[in-house]
Amino acid sequence: MHTEEFFSNKIDKDIRIVIFSDIHYVHPGFNTKIFDTLYNEIVYAKPDYICIPGDIVDQASYSNLEELRDFFLNISKVAPVIVTFGNHDNGQGKAWSWYAVKNVYLREMLATIPNLHLLEDSKFKVGNICFYGFNPSFDYYETTNESYDKLVEEISDLKVKLDENDYNVLLIHSPYQIYNYLANNPDSELNKCDLVLSGHMHNGTLPYFFTHLLNSNFKTNRSLINPVKKWFADYCQGKVYKVKDGYIHDAITKFSVSSGILHYIDFMYRKHVTVLDIKKTDH
Prior knowledge:
Purple Acid Phosphatase, chain A, domain 2, six-stranded mixed beta sheet
């Protein structure tokens, strides 16, 4: 667990967000001790909000979600849980062969969790703190390989209206194109967002201790390769230092079951949450 700081003159008091992404839950075979680790870190952090931007399950067809449900029940007692979906939450397959699956079981399970808010072009607001969730389609992720034009098309269909006087937090699973979009569309409703939270990039497949040290010192968030198969891509992990405040979690599961044989080295990667402190300023 580590902490990143952001600053805003919109908030009345400091707020603390815990973020983690890309659980990629499977049944059977998921090491549920990971849930104990995450829960203990969350309790220790004492957050005001818990954000999970996608890829909760590894395959959308999974129906046995009892262990995952127990984990969500536990953390929902600590603070409000804000969730969006990722590409795996709406798909089925392996490696580069995926097809869309309507997610019934995960959606039904999440609906049973008190104090949990699934955001799909919708908001969760407390005072002037507003969380908004945007879930790009399966076609965006798998058919167009996260093309910029497809993202622009889907954003144009959003119904969201945000208040620029609120402190707005956008949850979107993939950070790959969203920062380019915000830079190119200053009048977009989404540019009223003050902070963007994402996952998806799995830290570019590199160990966290290496990339965090590198990217913190050089004010970047590049890594080896991203899920769109771009080498040395930007927006792979950590704090975003340009365009818009943002944070990209480096993933709970780096190599999921759907990644094939690489899954067997996933135990080598640390499992942790990140604490985001948003500090009140006067200017």
